[in-house]
Specification:
Helices cover 57% and strands 3% of the residues. The protein contains six helices and two strands; from the N terminus they run E-H-H-E-H-H-H-H. The protein has helices spanning 10-23, 27-40, 62-66, 70-80, 86-101, 110-116; strands spanning 5-6, 60-61.
Length: 118
């Protein structure tokens, strides 16, 4: 379903890197958290509204990006977007990470970040 190699938009990648600088949370872990925050907020991807270039420099394999959440992430995408093509799944994942990181990107410490997750 999701490809073995994945990347995000440059903008999202920069936000993940800034968050790492403030909190120490690596971009792949922050991306996982951002994805699920986006899902919980009822954000939904639309190809017509979300024209984004996945042009970031951080190209990682699927297991590094998703870790133990890989299977669950793919199942959620399949459940919410049953008619999407395999090619579109990475765009859907990236759009959800971009949406979710917008609510996390301004935390300046790990304590603030962890308090926000409660």
């Amino acid at each position: 379903m999701l490809p073995n190699r994945m990347q995000l938009s440059r903008q999202t990648e920069e936000q993940l890197k800034k968050l790492k600088g403030y909190t120490g949370i690596t971009p792949n872990v922050a991306a996982r958290i951002a994805f699920f925050i986006s899902i919980e907020s009822n954000f939904r991807y639309s190809a017509h509204q979300h024209i984004q270039k996945l042009d970031g420099n951080l190209i990682l394999d699927k297991i590094t990006w998703l870790g133990e959440t890989a299977q669950m992430t793919e199942l959620i995408i399949k459940m919410l977007y049953p008619d999407c093509s395999d090619k579109d799944t990475v765009k859907i994942w990236a759009a959800h990470v971009e949406d979710g990181i917008s609510s996390l990107r301004n935390y300046k410490s790990l304590i603030d970040f962890s308090n926000a997750l409660h």
